[in-house]
Amino acid sequence: MSAQRSGQHIAIIGGGIAGLSAAWYLRKAGHTPTLFEASNRPGGKMVTREVEGCLLEGGPDSLLTEKPWAIDLCRELGIESALLPSNDHQRSFSILHGGRLHPFPAGCKLFIPQKVTPILTTPLLSPLGKLRMLMEPFMRHRPVEGDESLADFTRRHFGQQTLERLAGPLLGGIYGGDPEDMSMAATFPRLLTLEAKHGSLVRGMASMMKEANARQREGTAPALFTSLKQGMQLLPDTLASRLGEVLRLNHRVQRIQKTAQGWDVEGHSFDQVIIALPARQAAPLFADVDKNLHEYLTRQVSSSSATLSLIFDCTDISERPRGFGFMAAHPLETLLVGCTWTGNKFEEREADNRFVCRLFLGGPHAKDAIESGQDSALIAPAIQALRSICPFIPETPLAHWLQRWPHGNPGYQLGHLDWVDQLTQRADSLGGLHFCGSSYRGVSVSDCVKQAQDLAASRP
Ligand SMILES: Cc1cc2nc3c(=O)[nH]c(=O)nc-3n(C[C@H](O)[C@H](O)[C@H](O)COP(=O)(O)OP(=O)(O)OC[C@H]3O[C@@H](n4cnc5c(N)ncnc54)[C@H](O)[C@@H]3O)c2cc1C
User: Fold this and answer.
1) What is the pLDDT of residue 208?
2) Is the beta carbon of 173 within 6 A of some atom in ligand 1?
3) 175 Rama class: left (phi>0) / alpha (psi -120 to 50) / beta
4) Which of 250, 366, 411, 414 is the most buried (most CB within 10 A)?
């Protein structure tokens, strides 16, 4: 798909953010893409709704500002004025542990302490847990050979309590995965680089933070998160309107075939095919095409999650909570994985006199109900779990929106990068076949956009 080979007919299967951005960048590079999307709307997991005058997100609610690709794409599309920075003056969050909320220790970058006093005074760790955490800069840390799990990596540096109460909720929560199985190399390679360079993560982070701290003091640091004023769905909607007839909604691809010239997708000939589907949804397409690819794709595990947005009348709330919300310590005690106080994190989300919170549900207590579609087995227990921690939340919301994502979180398990390599090699051996999206080289919206950019710029 290099400039020399422009003008190719390329089928893209899956109209989530990965497929839409692939179509956008490929067309820019002079190709002729056709994008097949099974549902009647573009965007996949990027879905926004307005309920009671409040803006709710069913999937992603923001972009991590330090990953620039999706924000750059918004600028390119002319929707820069819609970018909405998080309210970082209110940025703080808590950890749910032992049935109570505890402020996340101040001065940590990720879960890596940069100040001693907040660690000494936090009720989140026992005296031994604190000692173990604070010993990190004085211990020898040698990177292990091969891939290592997030759990083993954190334990090696800071001990079990830091894993359960700080790193697990913070980092495991991003992937909706179990830190015992999560590949460090695939999920947090920058921490491995810090370790390789400095040994201690505390020392490594301190040196990395010098520049960032200076920007913070000058007031020029960007907000941690960025959203879109009209909601996250504005990005796929804008892409879809620019792509026009390239996008074919209500077209579920059931079958693809390798041909002498390229690929056949639903009876149409293409030079190349991009699979912009999560691995689990891509697998059936290869059952009759290539047994190896089918086997690789079925091998990726995934976990299930749901978001439950709740809208209350402000006059029913006795106190307004502070900060962005909370995450639950591991192992999870209920189906409640986390909660965002939506109106604290972003402006322009709540209508007048409304209070909105978004619960993130998942883990073993929610899995069956999410996968079998038993909404009532999620909503009442989730509100009950929230009220047991935050009694100021009324029993009945004015309105709610439950969005389930069965098998929606790809598991970046140990060996993930080898798996991606094997998949890519096998696809290359067939020719004209590419994979793009959250199952492969990064789960965030920005990672999906970056994969699409790289694909359009690559020379297959
Ligand atoms: C609850 C939740 C919260 C998240 N929060 C954030 C966040 O705050 N920030 C962030 O950056 N990321 C977040 N993520 C991750 C991010 O939203 C996803 O990884 C990303 O949107 C996935 O995009 P995708 O294009 O790879 O896949 P998807 O969005 O899953 O799109 C795949 C598309 O393919 C279509 N499809 C399926 N089968 C076929 C077929 N046979 N033929 C044609 N079409 C088909 C589907 O209908 C779908 O539209 C979150 C994810 C979840 C679940």
Assistant:
1) 84
2) no
3) alpha
4) 366
Q: What is the per-residue pLDDT for 1?
A: 54
Q: In angstroms, rounded to a whole number, what is the distance separating the alpha carbons of residues 328 and 361?
A: 10
Alpha-carbon dihedral sign for residues 459, 457, 28, 426: positive
**What domains does the chain contain, in order, with CATH numbers?**
3-45+234-300+413-457 (3.50.50.60), 47-91+224-232+302-410 (3.90.660.20), 104-218 (1.10.3110.10)
308 lines ligand 1 (CB under 6 A): no
Average pLDDT over residues 422-442: 97
Taken as a whole, the chain contains a residue count of: 460
Report whether residue 172 contacts ligand 1, using a CB cutoff of 6 Å: no
| For ligand 1, atom 35: residue with the closest CA | 14
Our measurement of the distance from residue 56's CA atom to the centroid of its chain's CA atoms, rounded to an integer in Å, reads: 17
Question: Which pLDDT value is given to residue 173?
Answer: 80
pLDDT at 2: 47
Ligand 1 midpoint to CA 330 (Å): 26
Is the peptide bond preceding residue 222 cis, with omega within 30 degrees of 0?
no
Nearest CA to ligand 1 atom 48: 44
- The mean per-residue pLDDT over the stretch 399-427 comes to 97
CA 127/CA 116 separation, integer angstroms? 13
**Distance from the CA of 389 to the center of ligand 1, in angstroms?**
31
**Host H or E run for residue 216:** helix 201-218
Has residue 318 got a pLDDT over 80? Answer: yes
Residue 437 CB less than 6 A away from ligand 1: yes
Contacts (Cβ under 8 Å, ≥6 apart) of 156: 141, 144
Instruction: Determine the distance separating the centroid of ligand 1 and the alpha carbon of 78, expressed in angstroms.
Output: 23
Question: What distance in Å separates the CA atoms of residue 362 and residue 360, rounded to the nearest whole number?
Answer: 7
pLDDT exceeds cutoff 50 at 385:
yes
Average pLDDT (283-306) is 97
Q: Which residues contact 323 (CB under 8 A, 6 or more apart)?
A: 90, 91, 92, 93, 94, 103, 341, 344
| Ligand 1 neighbourhood includes 46 CB (under 6 angstroms) | yes
Does residue 52 or residue 176 have the better pLDDT? 52
pLDDT at 190: 93
Q: What does the alpha-carbon distance between residue 178 and residue 275 come to, in Å, rounded to a whole number?
A: 27
